[in-house]
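Hi,

I'm pasting everything inline rather than attaching a file, because the server keeps stripping attachments. The sequence lines come first, and each chain or strand is labelled.
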Amino acid sequence: MSFLKSLTKYRCKCFFHLYKCTHLNTMSPLLHVVEAGTPVQGNDELEKNLVQVEKVAYSQGLPPEAVSIMLEFAMSLRMGKTVFASASKWVNWGISMWESFWNLIAEMQRHNFPINSYPSSCPCRASHYERNKKCDAEYKDGTDCLLFSSQGRQPFLLHLLSLYKVFCPELVTLSIPSRMKSGFRNHISPWKSALIAVQKRNGLQGASSISLVFTNKDKTNPRKRVCIFYWVCSQPSATQSSSRRVVPLVELHSFAQLLENMHRIELPAQMGSLLGSSLALQYLDCVQDESALLRLNFWLGPSQTSEEALQFLNKLLSAQHFLQEGFSSSEVFLYKFLNVWDGSLLRPQILGLLSNIPVVPSSRELLFEPLMQLFFTSSLFFKVGFSFADTNRSNLLPLLFKVNRKKINMTLSGFKDSMMELIHFVGRLASVGLQLEGCHCLLLSFVLDFYETVCDTFLKYGLPLIVMPPAGVFYPALFATDPVSVDRLAYIMHSNALNVQAFHISRQTFREFNHYVVVMVNCLWNSRMFHPGMGVQLGEELLLKSNVPQYGSSFDLVHHPAFMNYAVNFHQKVSHSKPWSWYLEYLFTQGYDGLKHFVQSNISWQLKADDGQVDSQQR
Amino acid sequence: ICFSVVRTPTDSIVAQRRSKNKSYRQSYRSCLGAASRLGHTPGWTVRRLNTSRRTKSHNITEKVNPEHLALLVKTEWQLSYVTPLYQFRHTQLRSYSRQLSAFITAEKQQGLAVEVEGTQTSFRVSFSVVQGLGETDDDAETVLVQIHSKPVFAGKDEAQKLVWSGWLTCINGNPEYLHSLPKDFTCLPLFGSRGAENLTSLVKSWFQQTFDCCFGPLEINQTCQQWLAALWTNCHIESSIQHLKMIWTLPVEPPLQITYTVNPQDAWELWNSVRTPLLERREEEEETARSIDIEEVTRFMQGLMSHFYRHFRLDLSAGRLSQVSSALGSAKFSGRIKMSNSRYVLTTLSLLTECALLKMPI
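And the predicted assembly:
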């Protein structure tokens, strides 16, 4: 039976669109449509054309469209046992290139760059193919299914399929007789040698070192070999054939490459994959492509409520830290989440996210209310640790305070307003918190710490801001039983005094400030505490009932519970009464600098000769 | 990444916008002022459900393909919300069908080295457009996805059966939100599915990979269920609801589940009594096209709950409504919905679309 003779009628579909390939315009003989039914065997012209194509392919490389056309041509030939050499070569070529692309994609997927739409440079988009005995061989370009037939026995196809089976077993369903497998020890060589030849011609020698690493994982079971095929390129393969090729963002590994290819970057199909890459974030920040950013925000939404929240949030935080601003979807997420947060779940991450929220006037309801609820319903240590402590970075208020102003194009007055609001908010928290905790000294100390920072806003943030501590903070500090708190209060008042002199403030603030200074001096120095107009008003009968003699001086520097033991010490050390100023000096040497500054700046007195009593005035 | 454009109330200086496209997203943040960002900003009023809705019943049996309609109606769907799809084209549905079927087959066969003849099940996926379901031009066309496959031990000649179906839709979506999205995005926020869970997750992951979108669970919350109860009761005259059944869960130990079934006539009378009198409304409104306000719904539910309290001394408002059902459909808190009458499909889907849009990250 001569198949050669019986193969007079066959179909040959060739639509050579090679017109469109710019570097193949030397191949004009190929550029015509051939009718169906043209004999292939013995068709000299066709053979000549194929050889020409082959020559060009080896010398310059072919664009993907050309390859797909050649493959289509090869597949569409109905042939019997006789192998048409050139055509089968194309088939071999196509499939081995195909698997390389496939493996490259698999490799990228392994590195967490999910790819779903294959880059335009990939000619074959098949995701799987299967053998179906009954169907005809058909290859549709750019589609998903490649159906092979076993019309007659086409051993070359079977060999190639089994090769594919070796690399991606899950994608090929066919059963291979074991004797066929022996033919494929050296399958990589045709592709490898051809590729090296082409690259040499294109002058890329030494430019990219291609190493094929072939590891055979499971040697024991020949039927079920799983092989991992790495394609390692040291540089992205920049072919000279196409200058308008888009570069996928995932291929760039350095900033220099990013800059070089800035105009032709292709974003990955899934924006979420970019979160961990600082290069990608830089690109996004620069380009400000709204679709891309929207996609990223959309992806962030549901992901924030998923189970692997910790790692995800850490990644998100580092991205935000890198970009120095927050994502709007994480703001929205936070506003919803804060209402149900218990304060301890993922605390550092949530606080980190909070620090990226711009403090705008409208954030009051959304942000402050849930935080306030959280604060008031928690224990003392939680209050301290959560809100005020600056010892580690995971605390709330210092973070809120460190607002990144640069990204918000607010005017200075707008920024100042929002900072004032923030400080008032903290004042409220502090007042009520102190009441709830009975003026616990730990909380008080952190609150005073905060107000010390407030005094320094001009120094630290360039913002001329003066905010007095509210009464709920001032008085507990003044009457505190530990001297450190009083000292710190004095320091705060002293710094504010300096600030008052330095910048222009409102009348209201000035009045407040004055009032506090008067109260403090009268209390500590003039022994006129509880007198009318001195802040704390207590009725005469109550004061009498308390049986405290000379209640006016009950909180001065000698009788104040905080300083009482110093007074006693001083009195014990000193044999006879000494000038008042010596006592003060003694106090100041105990380290109470705040008190020292306050007294020195607000109080002047004239010493009488040998008497502890002084006339004092306040400045 | 926030486009940081804020117009402070004290200053009239507007900071420079960074991007050239004037987008809604940028503009809404510029109107922050003293108003809360999410609640009352002009334009973006829909971070809560609409407070009033039209109750017109739509006879869509002529507009919609009866096969599609038969599929939609009388089946229970599991709902999810989807973020807008990037570069989704209604013209490429055939290609999507092939891609999805290849994806599913590949996923199913992962790890299998050698084919065992006969157990191979091929999946045939078809994407189709359900025309006639939309009301406005802003809504993208509803897309229906069906997966057919041969049962596992089927004979050779057995036809493929429908094993999974799902749809993506947007009915009466908020036009401002839809317009604020760039051109590349298609907003089909409501996703319903029915079938094996593994197929659902495969379909979802394919969508996520192909269109860079995200799926999330959509619960039918209290307000939404109450709306449905009221809407169904309102339709009692046109199509009898046969009963109004509510299942409440009370937070006691052990949890108490109460099934409260109301006679349709009683429900109808209660409903009528809580409606705002007709005189206060515009006279042009037809009886059937009247709109319902949230206050009426609340009063209706209050009526039902106080009736229950009078009899059993149990305050249902302390609990949670976990299911509402009638002859016109059923809705469960877990996100399962069933629409049993084709006339009310559009109203139900608009309500659910609104719920889905509320879940959008931004």
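The first helix of chain A runs from residue 3 to 6.

If the labels don't parse on your end, tell me and I'll reformat.
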